Amino acid sequence: MAVYVYAIVGKDHPVRLTGLRGVGEPGAPLRTITTESLRAVVSDTPHAQGHDARNAPVHQEVLTRLMEDGTVLPVCVGRVVPDDAAVRIALENEAEAYRRDLRHVDGCAEYRLQVAQDAEALLRQILEDSYTARKLNDDIRTAAEDPDLPLHLGEMINGEARARHRAFAAGVIEALRPLVRAQASLEPEDDAFFSASFLVPDDRESLFYAAAVSLAQQAGDDFRFRFEGPLPPYSFISRPIADRGA
Question: Do residues 143 and 223 both lie within one domain?
Answer without folding.
Answer: yes
